[in-house]
Automatic annotation (TrEMBL):
Keywords: Hydrolase, Metal-binding, Zinc. Transmembrane segments: none annotated. It holds the Pfam family Lactamase_B. Residues 37-237 form the Metallo-beta-lactamase domain. Its cofactor is Zn(2+). Belongs to the metallo-beta-lactamase superfamily. SMART domains: Lactamase_B (SM00849). One of its GO terms (molecular function) is hydrolase activity. This is Metallo-beta-lactamase domain-containing protein.
Amino acid sequence: MRKNVHEVFAIRYATVKRKSSENFLDGDPHESAGNMDYFVWLIRSRDNLVLVDTGFNEEAAAQRGRTFLRCPIDSLPLLNTSRADIKDVILTHLHYDHAGNCDLLPGARFFVQADEMQYATGPHMRHSVLRKAYHVGDIQDMVSAVYDGRVVMLNGSKEIRPGIIVHRVGGHTAGLQIVQVWTDKGWLVLASDATHFYANFQESRPFPIVLHVGEMLDAFEAITELASSPELIIPGHDPMVMDKFDAPSKVTEGVVVRLA
């Protein structure tokens, strides 16, 4: 199958200050680690337009003490894209910071791992420590989308468009998936929460919100193998992404960077 060459963009929509112990399983609680940023990603080519994750809204930011910078969905016009243009959305997982705002995309279909949907609606959600990073309203929206026929349930790896492949890696959640994208630089990997920060995978130090530590460590290896070079591994929350890559235009500086 012919691979399309894609552009990939990161849109930064929120931020929060963190301690080292909040970013690493073995982190020092007395050590400040700086900020954690929140992103959604847009993949586009002549033939494809895919949004990866949908972020959260201002209300969720206030509830969880995050600094809300902008609505990620309303930021799409910065890339000459409207809500109505978005027909396909890959949800890497269903945590509140990746799967909110789906109600703003009533014409879209969502690609999610079946393991993730089953976990987020299953018996383990009776435990507050396991459901903490999920928002029941987001899950209800996704169940409604299932009943509307707008959710594609995946089981493992799947090429959803020529040159756009998802891979289930688990670890952080039951059905976390990463996105491998063919670009003019080779294979780029949107790692999402397989590695929140560069340091997580580079130093093999897992993030502390983790369902299966072994799977998270395996995911570090997977993203390294799937990317054509280390520079094409994009962490899910690292502020360094905004420094490593350039904005596509003056008006998008500090908001959007072009990854490839």
